[in-house]
Design brief:
By secondary structure, the chain is mainly α. It is built from 22 helices and no strands. The chain has 2 domains: about 210 residues, MFS general substrate transporter like domains (Growth Hormone, Chain: A), CATH 1.20.1250; about 230 residues, MFS general substrate transporter like domains (Growth Hormone, Chain: A, Up-down Bundle), CATH 1.20.1250.20. α14 packs parallel to α20, α16 packs antiparallel against α17 and α16 packs antiparallel against α18. The longest helix has about 30 residues. It starts with 10 loop residues before the first helix and ends in a 15-residue tail after the last helix. Its main location: membrane.
Amino acid sequence: MASLSKRPWGLEWRSSVWFVTAVVGLGITTDLLVYSVVIPVLPFHLEELGYTGVSALTGWLLFGYSGGIVFSTPIIAVLSERYNSRRWPLLIGQFVLIGSQVMLMEAPKYWVMVIARVIQGISSAVIWVVGLALLCDTAPAATIGRQLGLAMSGLSLGLLIGPPVGGTLFKSFGFRAPFVCSVIVTLVDVIGRVLIIERGEAQAHGFDPAAPPVKNESIELEKAPVEVSTENVPNNADVNRTTTPSVTEVTVQDATQPTPDSPAEKITLMGVVATLLRSRRALAAIFISMTYGIVLTTVEPALPLHLQDIWHLNSSGVGLVFLAAVIPTIFSSGIAGWWTDKKGPEWLTITCLILSSPWWGIMIIQKSLALFLVALAFQSFFTAGVVSPLTAELAAVSRANTGVGYGHVYGAFQLAYGIGSAGKLFLISSVDKVSSVKAGPIIGGQVYEHVELGWLTICVLSIGLFIVCTGLAVSCIGEEPLLARALRRHKKRVLERTSTAPAPTPVLFDPTLTH
C-alpha cells in the first residue's frame, strides 16, 4: 500500500461518492445544455449563410446528434471496460465536445455543421456510458439508486436551462454567444473531471470511498488490538483480512461491491451480448428504456402544436407549459433513486408506469388548460421517475454477471434510448410563431399532422406502451420479480393448506357387503 504521506491532496473529498455524483451530474447537465442551447439559434444561422429550407436542414442537424450517439455507443462501451481508467476517457470526451462546439460555431458550410453535431453525439455517448460507470464504481451498492437518481437530475436541468439561455444570449450578443457559454460550462466540467480520484487509486492510498463508516457497536465487539478509524475503514479492513474475520470486516464487506480495479474475468463482446440476451432483467430494462425514449420524443414536438390548436398559445405560453413539464422531473429522479434503494427497482418501476398512465388519459381532455397543466406535470413526474430504477437495475445486472461491466450495461441503456429517440426530427419553419416547432419525431410529428385525432392517438399509444412495459416489469424486473414472488407465495399457501387438512378416515373392508 502506498505511503499515507504521499497521498494526493484532498484524497477523501476528491474520491468521495458525493463529489463523483456531482461531477457526473454536471456532465449530464452540460451534455443536455450543449444539445439544447443551439435549438433556437440554428435556423437563424442557416438563413444568414444563405440556405433555404432551413426547417429540414435544422432537423437533420439535430438528428445527426442522435445518430452519433447510436453508432458510437457500442464502441465506447467496449473500450470503457477494456481499460481500467474512467477519468481519461471522460476528459477526452469533454475536450472533443469543446472542439465540436467551436467547429459548429465557425462552420462555413452545412456539411461541416453536420459533422460537428455527429461528433457532439459521440462525446455525449462518452459522458453517459463512462460517467454512469464511474459513478457505479464509486458508490456502494446500497445507495447506488440514490446517487444515480441525483446525477440523472442533470438531464432535466440541462433541458430546462438550454433553450431559454440560448435564445437570450443570441438575441443580446449574437450567434456565437450561446456557443461561448456552452464552452465555458464544459470547461468547468473539465475541472471537475481533472479533480476526480477514482476508487481504485484512492484504495491504493488507504481510503475506500465506498466503505461505510464503522459503527461504535462493531468496534466494541471486535476488541482487536488495532486502532480503528471511522474515516479510514479500508486500512482496518486490510488488517482484518490477514487475521481472523471480525464483526467490522463482515460489516464492511457486506455493504460494498467489489473494487473496480480488482481482477475480473474478461469476455468477448459477443459473450457480453449473449449474457445480456439471456438476462430477463437486462432485456426488460433495455426495452423499457427504449420505450421511454419513444414516448418522450413522440410527445415533445406534438405538444406545442396541440397547445396552439386548442388554447391558441403563443411561443411564450408554450415555453411556460414546457416549464410545467420539465421542473417536476428535476425532483422525481432523486426521489425515485432513493426509493429504489429502499424498496427495490421492481416496485418503483411498476409504480411509476402505473401512476403515469391515468395522467396521459387526462391530457386528452380539452376543456381546461389548468387541468391539462396539472396532468402534464404529474405525467412528467412519474414518467421521468422510471429512469432511476432502470439504471439501478442495470447496475445489478452487471454485478450479477461475471465479465459484464458497468460500461457494457450503460452502453446498452444509451443505445436503447438513442434508438427510441433517434426519430426526433425537428422542422422549424418560422422563428416567430409557435408553429415553428412544427414537426417532430417520425412517430409523433407524422401522427399529429396526418391522423384526424392526432393528440388522442399519441396519448393512447403512450398508455398502451406503458401497459406493455408494466407487464414486463412485473414479470422480469428485480432479483425476484413480483410475479414470481406472488406465484411462490401462492404455492406456499396451497402447500400449507394441504399439510394442515385432516387426513381422510380409512374405510375398513367388510366382506359381508360384497354379498
